[in-house]
Amino acid sequence: MKDEVYRYNHARWEALAQANALFTRPKLDLDKETARAYLNLDRFGITSDLTGQHVLCLASGGGQQSAAFALLGAIVTVYDISPSQLERDQAAADHYGTAIRIVQGDMRDLSCFGDDSFDIVWHPYSLTFVPDSRVVFHEVSRIMKEGGLYHLMCANPFFSGLTHADWNGEGYTLKQPYVDEATTSYPDQEWVYDRSQSDEIQAPREYRQTLSRIMNGLIQEGFLLAYFSEVKSNDPAPVPGSWGHFADIAPPWLEFIWTYNPNFLRTSMNR
Predict the structure, then answer these.
(1) What is the tens place of the pLDDT at every residue in 152-187?
(2) Where are the domains of the chain?
(3) Which residue, 22, 44, 106, 203, is most buried by CB atoms nearer than 10 A?
(4) Which helix H or strand E contains 148, and what residues bound it?
(5) SS3 of 90, please?
């Protein structure tokens, strides 16, 4: 599916990796204890041993989540659009002496994986890089084992496209229509990569996914919501117009855990 969306995302993430952006830096200082804490698995109710569990790190290259899951004994596959990101996952695995599988591709097409392949799909922030989230959810539902867990982190659609730069002296003003697939963009934050050491990288291009599309899209694929969080900065003394203040006023991210139970709706409707 090498359309314009694919080409844009591929080029941007290759450039971010070359610039050593924050999300492209492998975690090379983990052990089992810190790996579990990094993933925050207890918060999601994942307290059991992960040995032998099949985990897909979806659109999750960079050698971070994959390294943590591998240290916890999981059988890890990383699927990402950027070859450079996948190289960093392999480098992290080599560093720890763990084995992972890396696969290059677009999250909208998971046809390289068989049905019922994974116990856990771990999907960090990337859903808004494609226009229609439902395409991704359909693919994930096919490769998920019944009872499996789908971790999803995505943009809070109400504030998609806003940043701390939108402070007007009183608040952060919503300006764009709340509709699915509306294109949004914003400058990369100064902490993403060192601009003095890198050429200018094209700005993010994201697509709004309304909350109703996200929720109903997953429910229709057979997912049940098990955990939900609005992610804030928790800055103890935020200054108006700073990133910490913005993130406390308008939480920019949502985090979910969904369980896959494809027979739930059918059983409920037949009662």
Answers:
(1) 999 999 998 889 999 999 999 998 899 999 999 888
(2) 4-269
(3) 106
(4) strand 144-155
(5) helix
Phi then psi for 228, rounded to 5 degrees? -145, 140
Structure letter (DSSP) for residue 162: -
Task: Report the alpha-carbon distance of residue 37 to residue 28 in Å, rounded.
Answer: 15
- The widest CA-to-CA distance across the chain, in whole angstroms, is 63
**Tokens describing residue 204:** 């993010």
* Integer Cα distance of 257 and 208 in angstroms: 20
Integer Cα distance of 228 and 248 in angstroms: 17
Q: Give the number of other Cβ atoms within 10 Å of residue 232's Cβ.
A: 16
pTM score above 0.90: yes
Q: Please give the backbone phi and psi of residue 214, each rounded to the nearest 5 degrees, phi first.
A: -60, -50
Q: Is the dihedral of CA 41, 38, 191, 84 positive or negative?
A: negative
Give the 3-state DSSP-derived string for 204-235, with helices as H, strands as E and coil as C.
CCEECCCHHHHHHHHHHCCEEEEEEEEECCCC
Is the torsion defined by CA of 175, 179, 182, 188 positive or negative?
A: positive
Q: What is the CATH number of domain 4-269?
A: 3.40.50.150
Q: How far apart are CA 245 and CA 46, in angstroms?
A: 31
